[in-house]
Amino acid sequence: MKKIFSLVILLAALSGIAWYLMQQNKASEKGYVTADRSFSIKNMDEVQKIVIKHTKLQPVIFTRKGKNWILNDKYDVDQDVFVNIEAVLERITLGYIPSKNATPHILKSIKENGIQVDIYTDEDKPSKMFFIGSDTPDGSGTYMVMSGSSQPYVMQLPGLQGGLRSRFEQPAYNYRDKTLFKFKPEDIKSIKVVYTKDNLSSFEITNGNTPTIQPLIAQPTIGKGAAHENNLKFYIQQFERMGTEGIVNSVPEQDSLLAQQPNTILTITTKNGTEHLYKFYSYDHIINEEEDPVTQKEIFGINRQYIYTESDNTLYTAQMRVIRRIFLAYQDFFGQALM
Predict the structure, then answer these.
(1) What is the DSSP letter of 90?
(2) I need a labelling partner for 218 at 20 to 30 A (CA). Which of 65, 120, 145, 230 fits?
(3) What is the pLDDT of residues 220-260, one digit of tens each?
(4) Which helix (DSSP H) or strand (DSSP E) does residue 252 occupy?
(5) Average pLDDT of the segment spanning 165-188
(6) What is the pLDDT of residue 30?
(7) Residue 325 vs residues 19, 278, 329: alpha-carbon distances, Å
(8) What is the pLDDT of residue 290?
(9) Are the CB atoms for 51 and 118 separated by under 8 Å?
(10) What's the CATH number of domain 179-333, 2.60.420, 2.30.31, 3.30.70, 2.60.40?
(11) pLDDT in tens, 265-284
(12) Burial of 50 (0-12, 13-18, 19+ CB in 10 A)
């Protein structure tokens, strides 16, 4: 009787173990994470830093600053681009496990050209580290492997048809905020606009309790009365936020472009004494070999500009329909309201 009872207990224990192993296998098939599949982040609010290292690109470091992120300890991050990284870290799931025959090739490829991603929840050491390989041949997912593991996985983002590698394989400037101006009006001390071939239209605005404007060349027929105060305030407000199309530091024509005379030079001086210098060049003149604009009116009518910011050695492009309202002439501030 005791032997039968012991046998029953043993069979029950073996059945329990078998059931547990079956459940684990089912979980694996459904994509539930285990130690070497835990690529996702449960709470992005706890992440303080993300470091992306690539064999062919400079490292990219995102550091949290309140609710925002800073790129490489210097630039504001373009949230419209960074959200693509956040989506992967928060929602990534297991697609399938590659075959054993494919595993050595996948690991070799990751070793030679993988992207390392380090996640920090504090400043001491990464709380998570993984490597991103190539996208699968059919584009259904991306090979990834956790640090210290020899088992790669094909990871996917629910609702996305395609690979994930490109979200992490970007030059640093692609992650930068593309905003050209971001000044609070009360922080601006002065704005100087020089049309390099049209001095009669050039001017400087001083932003005091009551803003004032002065021409760079005296004009007896203009400005006998005071400039419209609301016009000056309206103009200063344009620099609170104004965007661009993007950063184009890698264009081959940059050196020859910067060797030319800009059509407009804009200097914004803030009340802490910092000068921000912007140089504008006609895009159509450089790319389409059209006539270089000379007068303020000609500049006002072009389609697109290159903008070089001296403070951070960056070249942008911007459509004039977005930035046109900053290209006013001295005489425009007199007479009717601009709003």
Answers:
(1) H
(2) 230
(3) 666 555 678 888 999 999 999 999 999 998 888 888 889 99
(4) none
(5) 94
(6) 41
(7) 71, 15, 10
(8) 86
(9) yes
(10) 2.60.40
(11) 999 999 999 999 999 999 98
(12) buried
Domain spans, the chain: 36-175, 179-333
Q: Which two tokens stand for residue 295?
A: 């007068």
pLDDT in tens, 93-144: 999 999 999 999 999 999 999 999 999 998 788 999 999 999 999 888 999 9
Question: Distances from the Cα of 253 to the Cαs of 180, 194, 258, 306, 315, in angstroms?
Answer: 21, 24, 9, 11, 11
Query: Phi-psi region for residue 313, left (φ > 0), alpha (ψ -120 to 50) or beta?
Result: left
Q: What is the spatial distance between Cα 168 and Cα 116, in angstroms, rounded to a whole number?
A: 9
Nearest residue to 203 via CA among 235, 181, 243, 180: 235
Q: Does the pLDDT of residue 201 top 90, yes or no? A: yes
Nearest to 313 by CA among 173, 171, 183, 181: 173
| Three-state SS letters, 18-80 | HHHHHHHHHHHHHCCCCHHHCCCCCCHHHCCEEEEEECCCCCEEEEEECCEEEECCCEEECHH
Quick one: which H or E segment has residue 85? helix 79-91
Contacts 24+ apart (CB under 8 A), 213-218: 213/330, 213/333, 215/330, 216/330
